[in-house]
Amino acid sequence: MTVRTRFAPSPTGFLHIGGARTALFSWAFAKKHHGDFILRIEDTDVARSTPAAVQAILDGMQWLELDYDEGPFYQMQRMETYKKTLQKMLEDGTAYHCYCSKEELDALRESQMLQQLKPRYDGRWRPEAGKTLPAVPQDVAPVIRFKNPQTGNVVWQDLVKGEISIANQELDDLIIARGDGTPTYNFCVVVDDWEMGITQVIRGDDHVNNTPRQINMLLALGATIPQYAHLSMILGNDGQKLSKRHGAVSVMQYDDDGYLPEAVLNYLSRLGWSHGDDEVFSMQQFCEWFDLDHITPSAAQFNTEKLNWLNAHYIKLASTDYLVKDITKRLAKLNITVTSQPNLSAVIDLYKERVNTLNELAANIAYFYQKPLIDVDAAEKHLTAEIKPAIASLTTLLTTVEWQAENIHHAINEVITQHQLKFPKVAMPLRVLLTGIAQSPSIDQVMALLGRDEVMARIALWN
Q1: What is the model's pTM?
Q2: What is the largest CA-CA distance in the chain?
Q3: How many CB atoms lie within 10 A of CB 461?
Q4: d(CA 260, CA 240)
Q5: What is the pLDDT of residues 324-367, one digit of tens each?
Q6: Bridge-partner residues for 228, per DSSP?
């Protein structure tokens, strides 16, 4: 049997990091088994689903390069299929019309709560042998309910959590079509998984409660039951459930914040799954190694420091051409135009091993293309009257030196010897004057890239 997995987000918001991990695991499982990965947009919640949210999901999938073999399929375009299945279930007696009004259901719920009972539909419109149903009201558009078995257990071997058993007595007859005829989420999922031949359903464990209901409906339809794997939630750095207050929750926010898709994918791969002690690996390796046996059933905790470490690793490996294109865009967002001099490739090469994100890289090299703002504390500490003579001597030497880092370094050493100083006493003021702060790569390399005229002009501003 061909493995067929699916990612089925609801377009009521962006693609968040938990959804991206679910998509990644489903994608990798299909790749591992040379199967098919299907994208399905579950947009039946018309009130909350938006075209912008659909596009955000598609953009996130594209950025992560999680290519799908089929889709995207939209549930709202499959209404005829759902309605035919609903009609068949009504004819087969596995579903029935319920004419309860909202007021009746509210009263039922209130009564059960007062008796400290679990709120549930009491089956008053459920047809049974020898049972007399109430008279059909004329002013209520009926919903359709699934006729759930009332005895026995729903048992499945969850590929992450192990065996799960739910008593059918705990499940009431859920609504599978609203009064206006539109099918509900749980019903659409069942029909789609059946018709699309899904063999493994990999999703978040917030769906565990839906699974027994869906299995019962699949059984009622005579469909093959897929295997289920429910992934535990992701916690934030503070151990609390991941939410907006933890910062970036949209996948595309990670792009905005300067993370590479390779780093995000590599990090998500290890979020609840492991392959020995391997920390850094390609997606090809991940697909070769991936299985559901090594997914932890306990919650995974997000660690921003680990993500930053991985991102720094992938920035070092990234091609210069890729970085030049990306950093040019990020500098443009800072209203900085990249000029031909200094050469952006060389500037990036000087800094790319010193940063965790692409935003840091853009911010750190901005001074090459605009006059820097001098840090007040750094200026007070390093731009002192006693160092001015040494800087003046260096300025004189720099007017004639051949402009290469090695020669600039020799010029600085000559001034250090002449004024009986240590290297930092000259290098630190130069850093402040040229970059605005007291930290930078080797100052001679910075000066070589800035160019003689720019170096002289920035030093001259101090005089």
Answers
A1: 0.92
A2: 111
A3: 9
A4: 26
A5: 999 999 999 999 999 999 999 999 999 999 999 999 999 999 99
A6: 201
